[in-house]
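tool_call: predict_structure(chain=1)
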Amino acid sequence: MLQLHCLSSSSSLTTHYSIQLCPPHSFYPKKSLSFCRSSTSSGSNFSLNLPSSRINPFSIKCRQSEYFEQQSFTRPTRNANGSDAVGALPPRVYVGHSVYKGKAALTVTPRPPEFASLDSGAFKVSREGYVLLQFAPAVGMRQYDWNRKQVFSLSVGEMGNVISLGTRDSCEFFHDPFKGRSDEGKIRKVLKVEPLPDGSGHFFNLSVQNKIENVDESIYIPVTKAELTVFNSIFNFIMPYLLGWHAFANSIKPDDQSRLNNANPRYGGDYEWSR
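tool_result:
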């Protein structure tokens, strides 16, 4: 808002104007400008006098955007040694997919890889992840005894074998949890994936011999083409994560490329061409 005050005298041709600067919604202190007009025989002269004191404006900073940025991006979790945890994620989420049939039920659930920290502060995969197959025998109409379930850990390579199966193809996997140790042979697990006679899918047959707990059991379940397609889609999606490649991809920074390539020539992208 501008306020104009005029002071004039009949005996003088000089007119003084005082302009008050008061813009609405302003945090500036109220100041005035002195405006003078003098009339002479040769014309009119104008002069403007600024206030001597300096205007110190107030500043207002909106922190709303910063608040939402803090809500959207959380800091990665840190280990006990103070370094950022590799592949830091929100609280763990459990997922699985199941197939229910008259004789048994089959559930597949992923298990993440394990990482080990290095002296340099980096991480490496110490153990690859896998998909756990859980077979539970039926005890009634759509009722299954999960206390008697038998499990089989399917590795990334074994998942590749299942994915590549044709209509008439079969595969077989053998596991001994104590292989290479003193109790080798006490637990034997054999998973067979064989085609159904009519070509409509595959049988998943898990045989377990556990001499420690005196268990000798075989659980089988038919899996249709459509159900196997779902399994294969799950396997294709989860395999890079089981290998830890997601953690590597999340750690890539443009300014680190030259340092990473030079630090370990085995994994350097230009190593082949620098021989």
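agent: The longest helix spans residues 225-242. Proceeding to next step.
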